[in-house]
Amino acid sequence: MNSAKKQSWITKQVIFAFVLFLLFFPLKTQFYNLIYFLFDSIVTGGEISKIFTYNYLGFLLGCLEIQELKETLGFKSEIFNSTTISFFFLLAIGSWFFLKRRVSEKQNFSYIDWILLAVFSFSLIDSLEFLLNFFSNFSVYMDNINKHFIRIIKNGFILFLAGYFFFKVCNVNMKKQILFIVFPVSIISFIVWFFYLGPMFLPIATR
User: Fold this and answer.
1) For strand 52-54 and strand 60-62, is the pairing parallel, antiparallel, or unpaired?
2) Residue 41 lies in a domain
3) 37-60 burial, b for 16+ CB within 10 Å, e for fewer?
4) Domain for residue 137, yes or no?
5) In a domain, 206, yes or no
6) H helices present in 44-182, as ranges
7) pLDDT for 146-166, tens place per residue?
8) Helices 24-43 and 12-22, packing angle to 10 deg
9) pLDDT 10s digits, 129-140
10) How many domains does the chain have?
11) pLDDT tens digits, residue range 34-60?
12) Which pTM was predicted?
């Protein structure tokens, strides 16, 4: 009887969340690659895909440098960059809005809620990386504050939404699920993908 009570927290939804965030970084990076590919096809007619390789990092890296790309595509390069950045930002806002609306009423995660949380976390990870880079190169950002102002605001807003959701929307049980399932499993996903599986299956091709 006691054993059954102890194991009662292992539900199908918990297992789903475990698997989802175990696959978090492969899903994130390859989703980014897919979006880059789609917008490249729409905006530049596939020119960027001819220059760069799609890799395990989920960033456009490859045969030519960024400056060379700009010289090749001109204004199309700026359109591509602004379009993809705006898409990821709006996707994060949209997923957060629907997630908050859904869980505020029932105070529990469903399968769809876990997916929405993962999608929002795509941008959250990027914002945390930006925050780390910001404090590591604080003087550089301050010297070019006008250039980086929009990025600072956008990433700061994503971090604010994450904090608001965790501290104001989530109940105690939901916070425990995030802290004891999402967080540690995501770390495992990071290590396995970026240090082992990613470089094996989608290596970075350089000149």
Assistant:
1) antiparallel
2) yes
3) eebbeebbeebbbebbebbbbbeb
4) yes
5) no
6) 47-51, 66-73, 75-106, 111-136, 138-143, 145-164, 172-177
7) 988 999 999 999 999 999 999
8) 60
9) 999 999 999 998
10) 1
11) 999 999 999 988 888 877 778 999 987
12) 0.91
